[in-house]
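User: Structure please.
Assistant: Input sequence and predicted structure:
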Amino acid sequence: MSIAIRQVTIRGRVQGVGYRAWVEHRARAHDLEGWVRNVRDGSVEALFAGPADVVAAMVERCRRGPSSASVDAVTEHDAGADALNLRRPGERFSMLPTN
């Protein structure tokens, strides 16, 4: 099984509509590791780590988002395992404060 670590930035109407909580819920439901946070510019950032096919499916879900959101763009890139260090101690997936 191939493991992937992908960092994504989601732009559009994604803050204030439950997008961050939606990402956290979906990621935990699919047993992914990582984090999600709002960014001061109005975007949302997330990091997903796990089986490559599950991570790819999660990134695709982010392109659609919850029904209350309006996603304009999703950019993604590979990330290193050190990016997981932003999680809260003891959590597989963390909702982080705004950056």
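The mean pLDDT is 94.
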